[in-house]
């Protein structure tokens, strides 16, 4: 006989869970008690949105569901921000929510929410466990749904009294992963289409990759001399210094790369949905019938043909597809190699940062310093904002599992993601990029890094404004600044008050020594970069945007 709380933890352990993030609540005290001597690491967070984003980052970096636990009502709705990230980004995650007791349901009891109605758009499945004897069944199903097809988040709600029930239940077992494989005839058709193409292009993205699959695909691209682009914020999937790398297919795409995609005669979308951001607002490919021939490889049949009608649709995970094509005999097409080399050269020029700009601090030389002084396996995290352009465009990713950033464009993601990444990879350096607006969304999780002695380094770009919105504002309503100026704390004092290390950079040449001191401190650190708001983008100033408008 075990309590429902004990059965929840037992099922988590049976499925390989070693860490959870949470904000505690009285609605799931029985689970917290069962975690006490379970051997599972519990990261106690300061806001449920941060806790959910940590779980998303674990799922993003491991491919296994990140686990988050929150209380009912406001706790659950706070967590919905991280749930939305996981849904849009196809990240496996399970959110456990404490729920009101069963005999109070449908009375609008204290903090009651009907999550099957409220969270349907945010999750692949929302379930409530009314009978503790069914906990192994529900948890096993949650893991299977979160990882199958297009991965995503699952929500399980736990009535408080159910968790206290003493019941007999079957011993929990590990879920059985379901993989989808391409058919032999599909591989033959793919090979025929590839050999017939003069200007092929691969765009890779999505989830369900592995380190082995990434390495095998790099070898395939090298043998075939095909150009490869990475979908928005999936840049860690291909070595940027490889001669086949053509650049990132995302916000602010290199115009040269955009033209090459439009001029291609065969596009292979491998693992990518090619949604609004990577498609440049649905302009790179015609909808529903692209002018290029399309091979779309995706693990969920519901996505195939949803936006673009492919000439060949293959329902398969990227790892399984790469395994099926890696030994194909390469054709002798010198034009492919020449085109790939030209596209890679264009990428190198595009990703070389500018030397100068407005103000006393220049982000271009700072990015060059980071490139020269951070190891290839450094994990970079970020949220959303114009500051992220410096990392997105000018950092050259060279290793798998070195990026944790939201394709959904969620602000506040970078810091909790960095905490999760450092907890997962304590031997690797973790650098968080944040803007002043982005950081303050979940800045309280800096104390979580301090509590668990996770020496992340946050590069905080402070320009005193919600930069992306200000940029759009100047373009659409020039000179009429409204609701975008910010007043910020002293972030150096903020870091010190939380028990971390703080630095302020007011001149470009101060950055390198500040970073080294932060690194040497062994503490969670904030390096505040005082960037002139005029330097709103690498290419144009606020004044130039306003004058053009």
Describe what you observe in this structure.
52% of the residues are buried. This protein is an alpha/beta fold and 549 residues long. It is globular, with a radius of gyration of 24 Å. Helices cover 37% and strands 17% of the residues. The protein has three domains: 2-167, Thiamin diphosphate (ThDP)-binding fold, Pyr/PP domains (Rossmann fold), CATH 3.40.50.970; 184-350, TPP-binding domain (Rossmann fold); 363-548, Rossmann fold. Helix 2 links the parallel strand 2 (19-22) and strand 3. The protein contains 20 helices and 20 strands. It has helices spanning 4-14, 29-35, 48-62, 74-89, 115-118, 135-147, 184-196, 211-224, 255-263, 318-325, 334-350, 363-373, 388-394, 414-424, 436-439, 446-451, 467-476, 491-497, 511-521, 542-548, and strands at 2-3, 19-22, 41-44, 66-70, 93-99, 125-128, 153-159, 166-167, 200-204, 228-231, 245-249, 266-270, 293-298, 312-315, 379-382, 403-404, 430-435, 457-462, 501-505, 525-530. It has a six-stranded parallel β-sheet, sandwiched between helices. A six-stranded parallel β-sheet has the order 11-10-9-12-13-14, sandwiched between helices. Strands 16-15-17-18-20-19 form a six-stranded parallel β-sheet, with helices on both faces.
Helix content: 25-40%
Mean pLDDT: 96
| Text of the CATH class of the largest domain | Alpha Beta
- CATH topology of the largest domain, by name, is Rossmann fold
**Major sheet attributes:** 6 strands, parallel
Instruction: For the largest sheet, list the strands in their spatial order.
Output: 3-2-4-5-7-6
Strand content: 15-25%
Q: Give the structural class.
A: alpha/beta
- What is the CATH architecture annotation of the largest domain? 3-Layer(aba) Sandwich
Number of helices: 20
Distance between the termini: 70 Å
Number of strand segments: 20
CATH superfamily of the largest domain: Thiamin diphosphate (ThDP)-binding fold, Pyr/PP domains
Low-confidence stretches: none
What is the radius of gyration computed over CA atoms, rounded to a whole number of angstroms?
A: 24 Å
Shape: globular
| Overall number of structural domains | 3
